[in-house]
Amino acid sequence: MNADELLARWTAPAKRRVITDSLSLALPLVLAPAAIGWRLSGILVAVMIVVIGAAIALLFARHRAQRYDQRWLVRALDASRADMEDSADLLFADPAKLGPLEQLQQARLADRIDRDSPQSLRPDWSRRATFILWIAALLVIGLVIFWPRPGHGPPTLAPSTEALPATPGIPRLVAQNLRIIPPAYTGLPPRDSASLDTRAPVGSRIEWTLRFDPQATVPAIQPVGSAPITLRRDSANWVASRSLDASFLYRVDPASGRGPTPPLHRIDAVADSPPQLRALSPAASLTMVTQGQRSWSPVFAATDDYGVAATARLRVTLAIGEGENVTFSEREIAISGSGPARDRRFSPRLDFGALGFGAGGDMVVQLIVRDTRQPAAQEVRGPSLILRWPSPKQPESGGLQGMVNTTLPAYFRSQRQIIIDAETLIKQKRRLAPDRYLARSASIGGDQQILRGRYSQFLGGEEEGAPEPPTKDSEQHSDDDGHDHGGAPRQSAPGFGAPEDVLAEFGHPHDDSPASSLDPETRAILKQAVDEMWQSELQLKQGHPDLALPFAYRALRFIKEVQQATRIFLSRVGPELPPIDASRRMTGKREGLASRVLAVAPVEGRDGPAAAAWRALGEGPGAIREPIALDSLDRWARDQAAHLPDPLALSGAIDAVRRDPACVACRAKLRALLWTAMARPPAHLARRRPADAGGARYLGAIGGGTP
Amino acid sequence: MTPAWITAALLGVAVLLGSVRLILWHRAAVAPSLKRLIALLLLQPICAALLFLTLFPPAISSGGDALRIATKGTSRLAIAGGPLILLPEAPDIGAGERVPDLATALRRHPGTSEIMVLGDGLQPRDVESAKGVAVRFDPPPLRPGIRHIAPPAIVAPGASFSIGGQLSALPRVTVELLDPAGQLTDSVQPDVDGRFILTGTARAAGTVLFTVRVREGRRTVEQASVPVLIADGPAPRLLILSAAPNAEVKYLRRWASDAGFAVTTQISAGGGIALGDAPIAIDGATLRRFDAAIIDDRSWAARRGVLMGAVRDGLGLILRATGPIDAATRGQWRALGFGLAGKDGVAPLALPKPLTPALARTRQGIGSDDVPADIALPDEMLPEISRLGLTPDGGGDSVPLLRDAGGATLAAWRAVGNGRVALFTGIDSYALTLTGYRTLYGDWWSAMLATVARAAPGMTPISTPAWAGERMLLCGLSGNAQVERPDGRMASILPMDGCGSLWPDQSGWHLLRKSGDSPPTPFYVQPADALPMMRAARDRDAMLMLRPPAPGDRKATGQQRPGSSWPFALGWLLVSALLWWLERARIGRTVAPQSAK
C-alpha cells in the first residue's frame, strides 16, 4: 500500500462524514427560504432558490471536506493513537529519502496502522446545530403553509366607513368585508376588500360579509335599478354573494328603509379585453423570397390581459399560377406558441416543399388566436403577411408589378434619341448575348415605329402604307408617290398611348389632318424623312442597328430641314365646348315638372332633463336652492347610459343629491358630471343688440354699400 | 471754478503732502511699522473726503409742498423725508399721519397741489379724489401672474367661445382651460407678450365657471375662474336663396334647421321651377320678416336692389360664391365695400390642424343615437373644399370675420345702414360636415350669422370684473333695481343717472333684476383673493392715467437744497481722532528708542 492509497483510505470516512454533516446543516437553510419563495412568488422561485441553495451547500461541504488532508491525518493519528509513537508522518514519507532507522520505524508503523479502522478518526456530527436549524426550518415552513391567505378562510371584517348617525334600536352597518373571487381562467387569486367599492373582472363572484349593530332582522343589499340581493345569517354576520356581470351601484340597507338612507357603493366590472396580435417579423406585410430560401418563419406576438391559448391556428392561403391561371388554396394549420401565457410568441416554420409553394406564387398567412376566457373564448385575427416568390420570367410578372409594367404610358423618343440608343447598343454588342441584342434592337425599332407614326400624321397618315422600295433612290420622291385614296390605310399596332393613330385608323383624314396646312415642299421633305424612318425601323427590327444608323441619320437631317423650313405645332388644347344657346334651354318636354316643397325634419336636441337639472343646480337664472326633483333626470340617465361617459357615477351623484339636498359639494359634483353628460347642441346665435337712437342715426348717415 | 472745486484741490494736495511726509518719516524711523504706515496712508484720504462733505453736504431733493402718501407695499425706509400720510392699507411703518382716505388727507392739508404716492398705488376709492392734484408715482414692476382675463360677453348655447388674456412676467408656461367638469378643453403657450387665447364650447343655457390654469411644468402657478354666461336669444328667421339645387344649400339648410332656426329655402331649378319651401315673393315686405339671408352669387345678381334695400332696413345678408365669379359680380361686390384682391379663380383652403381626439370629445360632449359622438372627429380624409382666389381684405370698408389656417380671409362684413353684409368666399364648405369637421362648419356659419343677423333686443351683459368686498358700478338702470346674492339675499339699488353702486360681500353669481319683467342679468363676482395681479394691474393703469406733474410744477415745488452736514462732521472727527491716535499711540512700538535716549 503506497502513501496515496493509505491517505485516501484513512481520510475518506472523515470526508464523507463532514460532507453529510454539512448537507444536513444546509438543507433546512435552503428549504425554509424556498418555502417562503414558493408562498410569495410561486413554484418557479422556489425551484430557483433550491437550485442555487444546493449549489452553495455543495461548495460549502466541499470546502469543509478539503481540510481533511494529510496534515490532519498525521495530527489525528499522532493524537489518537499511542502506537503511532508520534511519528505518523513517516507513513507518508518517501522511503528512498529515509535513513535505515526511519525505514525500520516506517515498516513498524505500516504494520500497526491497520489495528484500528479509519472510521475511528471521523469527526462527530454537529448535532446541536443541526437540531436547532431543523426545528427553525420546520417552524418557518409550517408558518408558510398555514399562514392565512387573503381570500381564503373566514374573512376579517373591517370597520364600516358609512358614518351614518346612530339611531337607537335601528340596525347600523358596523363592519364589512367584500371578497372577490375572480374566474379561474384569469389566474388571479381571491382577495378581500375592506371597502364596499371595488373593481373586479367580469364573471367574478362577489361575496359580502356584513355585521350590524344592533343585530338586523331583514337586511338587504339594494342594487340601483335591479332586484335586491338577499342576505343570509351566518352566526353573527350576514353574507350574500352574486356573480358580477356588469358594473352596478348598490347600498346596504340594514333596516329595510327605517333608518337613514345609506350611501351608494360601486362595483366596477372590468371586461376581459381581446388579445392583441402583431407580427414581429417580417416588419412589412409584403416580403420577397430570397435566393435559395426553402422555408419561411414569420414571428407573431400575442398579448392578453389574462392569457392567450397555447395553440393557435395559422391560415395559409396559396396563390399559385400566373396571369389568369391562378389557383387558390387555403388551409389552416394548428401551431403552438411559446413563452408566458400573457405574452406568447408564435413562430411557425412553413416549408415550401410541403406546402407546394413555388415560383410565381404568393403565400398569405394569417394567425388566429384565442384567449382563455370562459365560457366563450375571444378570437382575434392578426394581420395578413404576404410572401411573394417572383416568377423567373422577365419582366417580373408577379401580381401588381407586372401590371404596372404593361400599363406604363407609351412615350415618344426623338429621332436623335433613337440614334443615340442604337449607337450605344452597337458599342455593347460584344458583351450582350445575341438574343438579348436582338431584343433590344427590336425595342429601339419599336420606338422608331412610334415616331414614324407620329410624323406620318402630318402627311395624313398616308405614309403608313408601304415604304418606298429600298432599291429605289429615295431622293427622287415626289408628291404623287404612295397617295392612296382607296380605303383606310393598313395600320400597324400603334402601341398603347398613341392616340394620334386612332385618327388614321378610323377615317380618311386627308383634308382634316394638319398636313393640309403644310406647303408641298415641306410635305416632300417630311415624306422623305418618314421613308428613311421606315428603313431604319426595318433594320432595327431585324437586329441590325449598324445598318439602320445611316437611315436614322438621314431621317434626322430631313426632320431638321423641315424644322428650319417651317414650324409645326401640335394642337394641345382640350375640347372647346360650344357656347350654350340660351334660346334653346328648357324647350323640351316639361310634363310632370313642377315646383316642389322639400321637407326637412330637424334633429331634436335631447338633453332636456340634463340641461334643466344642470340649471337648477347652478347659481344663475333657473337655479333652485330647494330640493330638486331628480326623477326625470334619473330616467334620462338610464336611457342614455350608452352615450354617457360614466353612467354609474352620474347615478351615484344623483343619489347623493337626493339623499342630502342641502349638501353643496354633492350638488357641485352632480352639476360637474352633468356637464360631461350634455351634448353640444348645434350653435345658436348670440344676436347683436339694436343700436340706440344715436347709433341708428349714425348708421343711417354713413349708409354705404351701393351695388 | 467753484469753491467746492478749489476746496477739493486743496484737500487733495494736503493728502498728497501728508502722504509724502508719512513715507519720509517712516523711512527715517528707527523701528518702522509697515502696518501702521498703511493704515495712516489709507485714513488720510478718507479724512479729507469727510471734511469735504462736511463743508459741501450733498443736496437732497425735497418735494416742496408735495404730500407723501403711503399705500400698500410702502417700504419702511419711507420714514425719512417729508411729511407722510398713511392710508388705511399702508403698512404700519412707525410714523406718519393715519387718514381714512386720500380725500381726508387733502382736506387736512389744504393747498396741496402735488402728491407723491409711495408703494403699489392708490385704491379705486382714492383715485377719484387724486384727480384734482398732480400725482408723482413710480409704479413698481408687476409680479408674475395673470394680468388680465377677458371672459366672453354672452355665449349662445352650443357656440364655441374664446377667452383672451395676458400674463405678466411668466415666460415658458402653459395656459390651460378647464371646463366645469374639470376636463382639459384647451392648452396653449402664450406669445412673447404673454397674451393667449383659449377656446371652449358651451352647452345649454345657464351660468357656468370655466377655469384658466397657468402651469409651469407640473406646478400650477395660478388659476382663476372665468365666468361664462350662456344665454339663448330669439331664433333667427333665415332665408336661403340659391339659383340651383346643390349640396351646399342642402347641408346649410340641414344645419340651420337642426340649430333651431326658422329656415325658408328657395332653390331655383330653372324654367320657373322652385324647390325647397313654399315659394315666397322676394320684396321689401317679405324680407322684413327675415333676420338674415344667405344668397349665392347667381341669385344675388337679379335681386340686388331689393336685397340692399332690405339690408339698409336691418336685414343681415351673407353673399356666397358658388364658384369663380365673373367680372360683373366682382365689380358689384367691390362696390359694396369688399376690397377683393388676389387672383381670379379658385384657391385651396387651408384647414386648421385637427384637435386631439381627447380634446375634441371634451369640446363636443356626448353623442346620441342620431348624432354619434365620433361624427365630429375628423377623418383621415381631407375634405375637398376651396375658396375664391380673391380675398375680401384688400382695402375697402370691410372687417375680416373668418380666416383659414393659412391666414387668408374667408369672410368679411361691413355695415350698410342698419343692416350688415358679409361675404363668404369659401366654396363647397359642406364637405366639412362629411369629413368630421362639422364643428368647424358650425363655427363658421354661426359666426357669420351672429355677426350680420338683424339686431334683436336681449340681455345687456355686465362685463366689468368685480371682486367681493369692493364697490362695483352697475349701469344702464332705468329705475330701482334689485340684486340677488348667491345665498338668496336681495340688495336694493337706488340708481342715479342710470348707475348704481353695489358692495358685494361674497363671491359667486349675482342676479340683477331690473324693474319690469325682463329676465334677470347674471354677473359674477370674483372672490376677494382671486386674480390679485389683474386687480393690481387695473389699479396701476388707473394710477398712470392720473395727471403727472408738469415740468413747470417741478421747478416751483421740487428744488434742491443742501442736506445736513452733521453726520459727515462727526465722521470726520472720528477719523481724525483715529489718525491722531495711530500716530501717537505707543502700542506696537518697540521700546528701544527709549533706552537710546
TrEMBL record, chain A:
Keywords: Membrane, Transmembrane, Transmembrane helix. It comes from the Bacteria. The chain crosses the membrane at residues 18-36, 42-61, 129-147. The keyword Transmembrane applies. This is DUF4175 domain-containing protein. Residues 460-519 are annotated as: Disordered. Residues 470-487 have a biased composition (Basic and acidic residues).
Automatic annotation (TrEMBL), chain B:
It comes from the Bacteria. Keywords: Membrane, Transmembrane, Transmembrane helix. The keyword Transmembrane helix applies. The chain crosses the membrane at residues 6-25, 37-56. This is Carboxypeptidase regulatory-like domain-containing protein.
